[in-house]
Inverse folding.
């Protein structure tokens, strides 16, 4: 009863249908983004979900390269899906910051903002006169984060980078995949998304410091180094044993049992037990309660020994092949071990649980139409995260932002347009302009 | 005069991690109680807060957190497994039996004055003990309370009772479904041609990182409002938020993203190639970059044959282009490939091709770059001796993160923390220990 009561209460404090009745944690924070691809743009996208105002600055015309990135070149209502997810909640501006008047506009935005996020090659912003060296003079409270492959100084300074480089040079690819296959690149841009995420931790820590002292600061950030920090026991293992960490497929060699195995009905199902109690439950579900006392399996340290682990995992594989995915799931609930079908986009779309939790998030966008996407990760009871709009074509919000935030006169905005300091989209390549079916006015903010 | 300094020299003087220890810490005003249990997502979250300066009190059951046994093949260093050892950073380790009433009372006293609580029990467990957010917020309305669990604190699956294990988080996230090799022969798939997880605890690390972001956002909100709050993080959703596209692709095209091994369904070329002495990564996706790659390997015909991204994102074409590019990489060593590409980037520079090596972590550990930048560091821990760790990547001019010690044995800080927080002396601690509370 108490338990039911807890879930009822939890649902009431998190109720996603009340999201827009509640305040936002970062409502007072403005971020200027000068980024391309994912590593940079994901960071402000994450913070925008908690209310930060984000000015995404692109070059007029082509804009962010990411606007081309979509699976099999299939565009969704004119939008590249790789770009769309991290375009959420942002104001989309196109300013040519490489020329003086454009750089001036950029500085005016920074003067009124709290955070700058950029992911250009080291020194590019400095060369353009809009790097930290210049910006801290006009706004000493500014928190400036520069994200890239290898940082702003050091032996790899001249090397360009991408997500896959960070995955391979860190060793992350090497430790992933099966021993008889090549090192595995994750099926996602792992170093980018996870890089932007941990980058956001740095920005918010700097904000905590600024809340106390009023001082801004500069954050230098390498995505390869960030993945190295996430490689759990790798470095200690190599330090103590002198042996290299290899790849072991889906089996976790540091938690036993933990593996991904086929079910009777052909699904792949992750099965794991991280404590003795969870393991005892699994043994009962398998009809082998005596294994929990078997000296080979009774303690985690025994289970982890190679010969015991191999035997146990083989037995689990055999057993799982006799149960359907639904049966395994039900047994896991009943006996308290871990089991989960390997889920894909269809599973997420259809999963009532994830919808209820605003992970599978519905957006009714004035430009790109109705869509569902990966939405909000952490749920906050007082200041829940949210998506207000999905994205905008290149330069779509120029007039509104320059008028509302910088107070520019209509005449000045017209002049900037004529001089190509600000601009809008080009029609090709695809992904820059509004969708074909756009009515020419929806989504435009009056300026 | 300052202008004359190159950007790299100028910024290094300000953010060099060698000077980290001369600088203040961002979160040294924050006290965190971490009651993570058999879960590295919670431990990584609080490590991160501790590396930025928070005072983290790590509360374990009297016989230690089972996570202390999470270690490859059970390898133990001075009684602690390597996965846990790596995430004990800067924390004070105490014991407390939360299942006992007296233990719960002590926890309430600690929580009254704490800023943050992090826990990873099955939902409702802390609540049933009378020390969940529902009870603690009455004692401390400023408290930020973060619970991590695969299926979260609410929603149809929240009460399912299944365990949170990293492999489960990875499986639920959606990432595993798009990672790994497709079967070469679909009729006879090999055991290794299946959806594949990341080798590390990526689900738990993503969960811990999102939890840290949420806690820090809540802290900022508290500065103005004075209000704490409840945070619910599912490591599976946290990792799933890092997906390229899954739900919107299904919604838009009624199809799921297939597994394509080391290819990428949205970028080509952007993959690993065999070369004379190992593997090289090469990219050249956007039109100018593709042209650059074709120029470097002297195959202008390829550029003409596959001129736009529409040709290049066809999986059948990918296989053709892959074979043609590999003809070139197979006749060169990695260093030759790297030099040829970097030479082009530097001297011709129309478009960019990005080269990289697939490095084993052993080779990574040997590369000078990471030591110069202190991404890797060997430190002397007061208890565990010499250890090699990866630092957080942030180099900061004012408040950089740092590692002061790597871990502590079970209950090592009992005397210090209970004396400082509650005024308990050795006599009281001995009593509590005898009663099984500590």
């Amino acid at each position: 009863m108490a338990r039911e009561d807890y879930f009822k209460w939890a649902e009431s404090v998190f109720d996603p249908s009340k999201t827009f009745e509640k305040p936002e944690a970062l409502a007072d924070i403005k971020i200027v983004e000068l980024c391309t691809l994912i590593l940079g743009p994901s960071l402000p996208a994450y913070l925008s979900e908690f209310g930060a105002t984000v000015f995404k600055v692109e070059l007029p015309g082509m804009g962010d390269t990411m606007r081309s990135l979509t699976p099999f070149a299939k565009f969704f209502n004119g939008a590249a899906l790789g770009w769309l997810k991290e375009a959420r909640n942002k104001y989309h501006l196109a300013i040519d910051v490489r020329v003086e008047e454009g750089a001036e506009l950029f500085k005016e935005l920074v003067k009124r903002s709290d955070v700058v996020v950029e992911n250009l090659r080291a020194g590019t912003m400095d060369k353009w006169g809009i790097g930290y060296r210049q910006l801290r003079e006009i706004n000493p409270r500014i928190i400036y984060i520069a994200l890239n492959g290898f940082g702003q100084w050091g032996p790899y300074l001249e090397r360009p980078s991408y997500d896959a480089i960070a995955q391979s040079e860190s060793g992350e690819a090497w430790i992933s995949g099966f021993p008889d296959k090549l090192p595995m690149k994750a099926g996602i841009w792992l170093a980018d998304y996870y890089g932007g995420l941990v980058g956001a931790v740095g920005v918010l820590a700097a904000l905590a410091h600024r809340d106390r002292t009023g001082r801004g600061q500069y954050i230098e950030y390498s995505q390869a180094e960030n993945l190295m920090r996430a490689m759990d026991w790798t470095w200690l293992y190599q330090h103590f044993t002198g042996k290299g960490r290899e790849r072991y497929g889906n089996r976790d060699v540091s938690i036993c049992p933990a593996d991904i195995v086929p079910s009777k009905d052909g699904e792949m199902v992750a099965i794991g037990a991280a404590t003795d109690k969870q393991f005892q439950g699994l043994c009962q579900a398998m009809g082998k309660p005596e294994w929990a006392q078997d000296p080979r399996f009774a303690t985690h340290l025994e289970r982890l020994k190679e010969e015991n682990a191999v035997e146990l995992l083989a037995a689990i594989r055999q057993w799982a092949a006799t149960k359907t995915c639904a049966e395994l799931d039900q047994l896991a609930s009943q006996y308290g071990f871990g089991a989960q079908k390997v889920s894909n986009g269809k599973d997420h779309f259809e999963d009532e649980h994830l919808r209820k939790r605003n992970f599978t998030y519905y957006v009714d966008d004035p430009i790109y139409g109705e869509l569902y996407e990966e939405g909000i990760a952490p749920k906050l009871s007082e200041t829940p995260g949210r998506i207000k709009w999905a994205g905008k074509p290149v330069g779509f919000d120029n007039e509104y932002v320059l008028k509302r935030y910088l107070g520019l006169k209509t005449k000045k905005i017209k002049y900037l347009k004529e001089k190509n300091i600000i601009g809008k989209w080009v029609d090709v390549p695809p992904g820059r302009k509004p969708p074909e079916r756009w009515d020419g006015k929806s989504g435009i903010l009056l300026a | 005069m300052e202008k004359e300094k190159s950007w790299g020299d100028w910024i290094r003087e300000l953010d060099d991690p060698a000077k980290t220890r001369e600088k203040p810490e961002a979160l040294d005003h924050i006290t965190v109680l971490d009651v993570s249990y058999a879960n590295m997502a919670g431990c990584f979250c609080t490590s991160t807060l501790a590396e930025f300066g928070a005072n983290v009190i790590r509360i374990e059951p009297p016989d230690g957190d089972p996570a202390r046994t999470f270690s490859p093949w059970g390898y133990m260093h001075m009684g602690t497994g390597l996965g846990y050892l790596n995430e004990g950073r800067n924390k004070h380790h105490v014991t407390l039996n939360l299942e006992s009433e007296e233990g719960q009372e002590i926890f309430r006293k600690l929580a009254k004055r704490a800023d943050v609580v992090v826990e990873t029990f099955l939902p409702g467990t802390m609540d049933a003990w009378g020390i969940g957010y529902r009870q603690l917020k009455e004692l401390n309305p400023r408290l930020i309370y973060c619970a991590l669990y695969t299926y979260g604190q609410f929603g149809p699956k929240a009460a399912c009772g299944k365990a949170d294990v990293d492999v489960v988080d990875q499986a639920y996230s959606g990432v595993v479904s798009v990672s790994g090799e497709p079967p070469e022969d679909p009729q006879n798939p090999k055991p290794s041609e299946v959806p594949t997880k990341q080798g590390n605890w990526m689900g738990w690390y993503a969960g811990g990182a999102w939890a840290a972001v949420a806690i820090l956002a809540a802290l900022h909100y508290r500065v103005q409002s004075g209000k704490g709050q409840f945070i619910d993080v599912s490591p599976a959703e946290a990792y799933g938020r890092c997906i390229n596209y899954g739900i919107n692709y299904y919604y838009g095209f009624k199809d799921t993203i297939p597994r394509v091994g080391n290819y990428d369904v949205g970028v080509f070329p952007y993959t690993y190639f065999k070369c004379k002495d190992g593997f090289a990564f090469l990219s050249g996706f956007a039109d100018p970059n593709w042209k650059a790659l074709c120029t470097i390997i002297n195959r202008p015909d390829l550029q003409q044959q596959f001129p736009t991204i529409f040709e290049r994102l066809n999986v059948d074409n990918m296989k053709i282009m892959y074979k043609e590019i590999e003809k070139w990489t197979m006749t060169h060593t990695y260093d030759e490939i790297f030099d040829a590409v970097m030479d082009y980037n530097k001297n011709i520079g129309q478009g960019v091709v990005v080269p990289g090596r697939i490095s084993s972590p052993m080779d990574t550990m040997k590369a000078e770059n990471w030591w110069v930048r202190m991404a890797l560091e060997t430190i002397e821990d007061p208890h565990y001796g010499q250890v090699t760790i990866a630092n957080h990547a942030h180099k900061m001019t004012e408040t950089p993160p740092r590692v002061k010690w790597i871990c502590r044995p079970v209950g090592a800080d009992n005397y210090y923390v209970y004396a400082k927080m509650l005024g308990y002396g050795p006599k009281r601690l001995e009593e509590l220990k005898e009663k099984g509370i500590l």
